[in-house]
Amino acid sequence: MAMEIENVRYEEEFIVNARGLKLFTCSWIPKNEEPKALIFICHGYAMECSISMKSTARRIAKEGYGVYGIDYEGHGKSSGLQGYVSSFDNVVEDSSSFFTSISEKKENREKKRYLLGESMGGAVALLIHRKQPDFWDGAILVAPMCKIADDMRPNPLVINVLTKLCKIIPTWKIIPTQDIIDIAFKVPEIRKQIRENPYCYKGRPRLKTGYELLRISSELEHKLNEVSLPFLLLHGEDDRVTDKLVSKQLYDEAMSDDKTLKMYPGMWHGLLYGETPENMDIVFSDIISWLEKKSIVAYENSKSELERKHENDGFLEAKQQQES
């Protein structure tokens, strides 16, 4: 399916992953210009791309960027038991494989490529980067799940019991936790939209899913120093879902030479979809400014490279004329 809205061409396609599952993918491409760069969306837990990430993708595409998204297994319009993550490694592999296939198309090979991960998607983006550390040109990490906030974690005794149970009843929805929608999204109308979206999972976290989220966030928390790509890190000061202190830790410990941290007073977890319009304008202004700065640097570098090539060609031509 393809459609055009405000000079942005939207397309949907189902692909089949290595395990034979149908996964939903979508893209938003500027209609009248070549994309400045490619942006790959990694959505959050229980969310999806085509509806809840649509406003984010369109805002970025209208600025001249090609935007691509994929619904993970068990999420959105993709196959699998809704809300069930049997293996976080599979989520990362599926996303990485799709994003890489788009990046390596002939028309895209020279374009810069950036990951945009929100919440659990921030963890997906960091793990995609770990798979190919030199492949990605940067990442926008929005309240990334490098550690689940203490208020959201069951106590250690409960975690121990649930870990044993997940080997027996992995898909059961019995993890005790607060309603994530209520504490992640500030604007009541947005909460209503998410609850009415049939592609967003609303039940309690399934046992194996909860185990995988705890496993991966714990692993990431202890390997923050391995992050080496340029990144823009955004976190709301009043986030009660993912730990803002670990975002600060990521900023401090990452080996990246090029890193930026923005903390937003009074903002909650859902910075891209869930804040007031005024607050979201601030967040997107920071995202676009960061991308534009990267685009200008990339353009100047390629221009310098071209100028050096012309100088070398002129030097060789003059030398050949001298010798003849």
Automatic annotation (TrEMBL):
Biased composition (Basic and acidic residues): 303-313
Region named Disordered: 303-324
Transmembrane spans: none
Annotated SUPFAM superfamilies: alpha/beta-Hydrolases
Domain of life per record: Eukaryota
Pfam families named in the record: Hydrolase_4
Domain Serine aminopeptidase S33: 34-272
Protein name, UniProt field: Serine aminopeptidase S33 domain-containing protein
